[in-house]
Structures are given as C-alpha cells and as structure tokens.
Design a protein that fits this description.
- The chain has twelve helices and eleven strands.
- By secondary structure, it is α/β, with parallel strands linked by helices.
- It is an enzyme of class 3 (hydrolase).
- Keywords: Hydrolase, Protease, Serine protease.
- One of its GO terms (biological process) is proteolysis.
Length: about 325
Amino acid sequence: MNKKRWIALAVAVALFFASLGFQFLTSLVTTNYEAMFSLEDLDDDFNEKVIEEGSGMSKIAVLRLNGVIQNTTANTLINTSSYNHKRFLDMLDKAAEDPRVNGIILRVNTPGGGVVESAEIHAKIVEIQEEYEKPIYVSMGNTAASGGYYISAPADKIVAHNATLTGSIGVIMESFNFAEFADEHGIDFNTIKSGEYKDIMSMSREMTEDEREILQTMIDDMYDDFVQVIVEGRDMSEDRVRELGDGRVYTGAQAQEADLVDRLGSLNDTITMMKEDQELGNAQVVEYEQGLTINQFLGGTMRSMFGAESDLIGIKDLLRENNAPRAMYLYSK
C-alpha cells in the first residue's frame, strides 16, 4: 500500500472515531444528570413522577407493567427498555413499604409470559394486600391476557377499556419439529442421552404418545393453579372459571359481562375510583418510572452509535435465551 493510501486510511479511521466521540459527547450533553445521579433514587433505579398534585403525605402509586413477563438475561447494555422482572418486583416492594402510599394501581399492558414470573408477581400482590393492607387496583391497557390476567385476578378492583383484550386463561408450551424437513434434505441428528425422556420435545423427531401424556399432565397442573387463582381472586366457582377459561380472549366489555373485570374505564377513571372508594381525595398520584442508570445511559449511547446493529444483538440474545420450550401463561396470535 502506497503512502497516499495509508494517509487516506488514517484519515478515515480518525473521522470514524471522531464521529463516535461526537455522538458520545452529544449524549453526555443531553443527559438528565439530576435524574441519573439523584441520591434519593440511586438505589431504586426508578423515580417518582407526579401526575396529580396532592398533599404528598398520602399517595397513590401507579406502576406500569409493559411487555412480555419474563426474567430474561439478554444483553443489558443494549437491551435496556424491555420488561425488567426484578425492577418491577422492586417497585412493588417500594410501594408496599412506603408509609405514604395508601393505594397502588397497576397499569397492565401485557400478553402474559412465564409461569414462574407471573406467579411471583401474583404472590407479591397478595402479600401487599395481606401484610400491608393496601388496596391494589388494576387498570388494563390494550392487552392484559393470560399471565396479564393471572396477576390481575387478586386485585381489589379490575378496570378494563371497552376494547381491551383479556382472558386467554390457560397454559401453552410449544416447540418446532424439523424432522420431516431434515429427512428431505439429508440432515442427520446425533443425540446422546442419559434417559428415555431427556430429549422430550426434541425438534429432531416426532413426539411419542408417552411424552405427550407427560407434558399434558404438567400443563394440566399449571392450568389448575391458574383456575384456583381466579376462583380465589374473583370469588367465582371453579366450574364457572373452567367454563370461561378455555383459552379464548375477551374484550373488556365481554369480560365485564362475564365478571372477569369490575368496571370499564381508563387509567384516569381508575385513579378516580380509587380516590372515591378509599377516601383518598387529597392524595398525590405518582407514577414510578425507570430512572436513568449508567447501563441505560451507555445502552442508549451505543444504540445511537450502532443503530440497527444493536437491535440485532438484542434479538439474537432473546432467541438464545428462549431456544428451549417452556410453559407460558401467554396469549399469542
């Protein structure tokens, strides 16, 4: 390579790093450092945003649950905006332990998710109601189905929009079967296993009747738990719950008619209901929102610098995290 080409290459590299540096500095300049480094919220990773003024000595806390309920370990430096299971549980803990919070509203917008994660949220809600004696209302968004309904069932009041999609009461487990495709294309699978059922739900062969029976028994047990959660939370008979819980989704209006939700309305309507029901007319209404942590700041900077490539990294991590079949309280189209 001649001297001119070396110079051109050096200039190109310098411009590239200068561009990255400029974008990084831009992020530094535009960052809200007061929120990022607030001593009050440093340990919580979230802030309180006042959405209705009040006395401040009495508060209603609004917590938003958006996205699929699953405790993934995707690349946290890139993927900083998806549902964070631990942070949501921490928010519930903070609302429970704050003596100024006299009521909690969960804004639920989710198709559901993992069986374990949904059960953990449900258990936390019941704990708050029983140990802290704080009312919890649910305001349903566009979708509050399957696991979204599972966590809503114990609420003191469930409010849905007329067009909310809810219900989808049930459990699902899925996997792919590439056996026929592999056979047509001469692909062989070599599996070494320690027991007959070690490769249950393998993508490389047909499922046996014994395996199907094993998995169906598991799903039935999880479904029984789902039914019991609704029986206890909604004070309905088991027969009625099983009649409604055939996996179908309901609109908010249909769910109200079936007694799966109490009222129709918006988040604002839910706030008004709680104030009236719980005599909290002068309460300040705050929304717990995710604070800007170092990881989020760096993640946002990297997304701005690398654009679509960072999205691909997040997708790759999510696929790798979910490549094994798992039981889900999930509404999927």
